[in-house]
Design goal:
The longest helix is centred in the last third of the chain and has 34 residues. Strand 7 and strand 8 form a beta hairpin. It is built from six helices and eight strands, in the order E-H-E-H-H-E-H-E-H-E-E-E-E-H. Strands 1, 2, 3, 4, 5 and 6 form a six-stranded parallel β-sheet that branches. The protein is α/β, with parallel strands linked by helices and 200 residues long.
């Protein structure tokens, strides 16, 4: 790894709503990404069908296969999540169930992941992100621990698509810097492990 290397993260938004606050948030995350990190939003999220383990094992639908390939190829994953009924939106949990297949060899193992979320509530997406972190323990992913980015009162935080909360903007910058640091820490270890297995 060199300090000039550019990393690539794939991003998903756990909302299908046209005026999603989390889509606005992700747009700003992409805008604020550091020079050594390119964030690409997966464009076919709305095409992902309900999870069916039979199909997951025999051959996933095209949109799912493309998402799985993007996650495998990326250095990191960025997730922007709303919070519905105190939890993770169904469309996002559904997508993660697809991505997590096959268990133990899904591409999520060891994958650095950054979480952000926006909600009109005063708690932001704290509960949803807590649930996501629990699910990502099962996939052995490396979630950035801090800072946690909960954009509260989201209906007051954007002006013509621009995130106007300086505190949130600062936290996003720190989160992305920490994501890059985590990529640098994790990837050499994964390479060493692969080399050790190959040597056997």
């Amino acid at each position: 790894m060199t300090s000039t290397e550019k990393f690539r993260a794939v991003a998903i938004v756990g909302s299908l709503r046209a005026d999603s606050y989390n889509q606005l948030l992700l747009d700003n995350v992409i805008r604020l990404s550091p020079d050594d990190l390119e964030i690409y939003q997966f464009p076919r999220f709305a095409e992902i069908p309900l999870f069916n383990e039979d199909h997951a094992r025999t051959g996933p639908p095209d949109a799912v296969a493309e998402l799985q390939a993007e996650v495998r190829a990326a250095d990191a994953l960025v997730i922007a999540t709303p919070e519905y009924n105190y939890g993770v939106p169904g469309v996002l949990k559904n997508a993660l169930d697809w991505i997590s297949m096959p268990p133990g060899n899904s591409g999520l193992e060891g994958k650095p992941i950054a979480l952000v979320g926006a909600s009109p509530s005063i708690l932001g997406t704290a509960r949803a992100q807590s649930q996501l972190r629990q699910s990502l323990v099962a996939t052995d992913s490396h979630v950035v621990n801090s800072p946690e980015v909960f954009v509260t009162r989201a209906h007051t935080r954007f002006d013509e698509g621009l995130l106007t909360d300086p505190g949130a903007t600062k936290l996003i910058g720190r989160l992305l810097d920490n994501l890059v640091q985590l990529i640098r820490m994790v990837e050499p270890a994964d390479v060493r492990l692969t080399e050790q297995v190959t040597a056997r």
